[in-house]
Design brief:
Number of strands: 9
Strand content: 15-25%
Number of helices: 22
Distance between the termini: 38 Å
Structural class: alpha/beta
Helix content: 40-55%
Strand order of the largest sheet: 6-5-4-7-8-9
């Protein structure tokens, strides 16, 4: 495919710039790693390090061993991008799930709190931490008793307030107490990180196995469908939809049967192709809006960034409380005052602040007119599935539907199927990915029941009022052994014909009600004794002035 570095990056810029998983360089690496492995191009970038990412990387390598992946994406840029996007969505979703469901969240929060606590605040609270760690870790993991003995000896000499802390921080070397605290935090961090990583890998294995199985099945059914519907390169990506899951009833054997029948019925295939030439694309003007972005950057203060002490405030945060406030607790007479101040959020506390960069954008918009082709005109297909169509007529009707389905898919044209007897059923033939089960059901069904054309024509006229089908033409396939059309429907048909819609009929019987056929612009009759009849109908259609 030979896309440039910038083109690949632009395709997945949203994930690279704003994805929540990993850091930006890792996300960028992930995009190019996926792209080059799927397309088979050379990729020699250094892999980011980390046990979690290494396992993710090894898991994703398994996806590229699937031969159907190479087969499906060969020369198919749309599908390649779709699959990469699905993998990136899975990575993002799994990373978020693993982080949010972390069973060690509270311990991690506690570690972050203690690791940012200045030494003087350890003086009166260190015992709470060692008791907490004794409950979590055995002596073979963390020798808490060692640290208890050290703290008992060293804590009396610890700084008692902010002023003492600042003087201690100015010393050239760390005190023995600070070294012991750093060592305890380092061991705690290592143990906690190992626990979290072990849990993350377990969850990643579980999530990946399910995802990999789904992607293998999706590729398998995609290859089968493309073999039937035609592998028409770029447009084939429209049938790939991971969010839809697997088809409940694929019925590939049924599709394969009608694909073979269509190859035998060359006339029907030609008829479908010529129907597709109706309402060919027209030129229209399209106005495209462009924008210029002016970016402004500035530093603002942010109290959530605890980079340095910014002053004193009132709060009930015990972690940032001034030591002088704790003195209230030393005496029963003043302790009530402490609790009152705590309840009123009036304890004197340090507040911290930092600075962060904020970016603001100003947009200038301008319009440019361009010529483009309108999409080819849609059409509505009405198929009679009543009992009188049983046998050869039903077979012809089904093969014609299959042919039109392929043509609509190949040309990306909207096509709406209405099959009717007493009632109606509808299928969107353009959206094969979501209509495959209904299509298979139609191809399998036995034609039976009476004939009532009214509901089918009512549905047709309603669909013609929608934006998608307002320029559609209509083809009805039936034996036309039916009662005449209601006057109100005839009037509506005439109004649509006046607006340019053409109503065509294909009769699969010699007993048709001629009064019904008078409502159609063009009517053809299928004679089973004449093997070339469909080809003759196709020739008639070809000679029509449909433009």
């Amino acid at each position: 495919m030979n896309k440039s570095f910038s083109e690949i990056r632009n395709d997945f810029e949203q994930f690279i710039e704003f994805g929540s998983a990993f850091d930006k360089p890792t996300r960028e690496y992930l995009v190019f790693y996926l792209y080059y492995n799927i397309t088979g191009e050379v990729f020699n970038e250094d892999k980011p390090q980390g046990d979690y990412f290494n396992y993710l990387h090894a898991s994703l390598d398994r996806i590229f061993q699937n031969q159907n992946l190479k087969k499906a994406t060969k020369n198919n840029q749309v599908l390649t991008n779709e699959i990469i996007n699905d993998i990136l969505k899975w990575v993002k979703r799994t990373d978020k799930k693993v982080k949010e469901n972390n069973p060690y969240y509270h311990e991690l929060h506690s570690f972050d709190s203690w690791s940012h606590k200045p030494t003087f605040l350890w003086k009166d609270s260190w015992y709470n931490l060692v008791n907490q760690l004794k409950e979590i870790y055995g002596r073979d993991e963390l020798d808490v008793a060692f640290y208890i003995e050290k703290f008992k000896v060293l804590m009396p000499n610890a700084p008692s307030n902010v002023t003492d802390q600042k003087l201690a921080d100015k010393q050239e070397y760390k005190s023995e107490l600070d070294i012991i605290i750093d060592d305890l935090l380092a061991q705690w961090d290592a143990l906690l990180t190992a626990k979290i990583l072990k849990w993350q890998l377990k969850e990643l294995i579980k999530e990946f196995e399910g995802f990999n199985t789904l992607i293998e099945k999706k590729l398998s059914e995609y290859i089968k469908l493309m073999g039937i519907v035609n592998p028409f390169a770029e447009e084939a990506g429209n049938y790939w939809d991971m969010s839809r899951g697997l088809w409940a009833d694929t019925g590939f054997s049924v599709l394969e049967k009608y694909s073979e029948l269509l190859e035998e019925e060359k006339g029907i295939k030609e008829l479908a192709d010529l129907l597709g030439q109706m309402r060919e694309a027209e030129i229209e003007l399209q106005e495209e809006i462009y924008e210029d972005v002016i970016i402004k950057k500035e530093w603002i203060k942010d109290e959530t960034l605890k980079e340095e002490v910014g002053g004193i405030k009132s709060s009930n945060d015990l972690n940032t409380m001034l030591p002088s406030e704790a003195a209230y607790l030393a005496d029963n007479d003043t302790s009530l005052a402490f609790y009152q101040k705590f309840a009123d959020h009036s304890l004197l506390s340090f507040y911290y602040e930092g600075k962060r960069m904020v970016t603001s954008d100003r947009f200038n918009y301008y319009a440019v007119q361009k010529q483009k082709k309108k999409e080819k005109g849609p059409f509505i297909l009405c198929i009679d599935t009543s009992g009188s169509m049983y046998g050869t007529p039903s077979q012809i009707a089904k093969v014609l539907v299959f042919a039109i389905m392929k043509m609509a898919a190949d040309e990306q044209r909207k096509c709406y199927l209405i099959n009717f007897s007493i009632g109606i059923k509808t299928i969107n033939l353009t959206d094969i990915a979501n209509s495959i089960d209904k299509i298979v059901e139609f191809l399998r069904m036995s034609f039976d029941g009476g004939t009532d054309v009214g509901p089918a024509l009512s549905e047709t006229l309603d669909v013609l009022q929608t934006n998608d089908y307002k320029d559609a033409d209509v083809l009805m396939v039936s034996d036309f052994v039916m009662f005449k059309i209601r006057e109100d429907l005839l009037e509506k048909i005439k109004r649509e014909q006046y607006k340019g819609t053409q109503f065509h009929s294909l009769t699969l019987s010699d007993k048709a009600n001629l009064e019904v056929l008078e409502a159609f612009d063009n009517s053809w009759a299928y004679d089973p004794e004449r093997k070339d009849i469909i080809r003759l109908l196709a020739n008639d259609l070809h000679n029509m002035d449909v433009n």
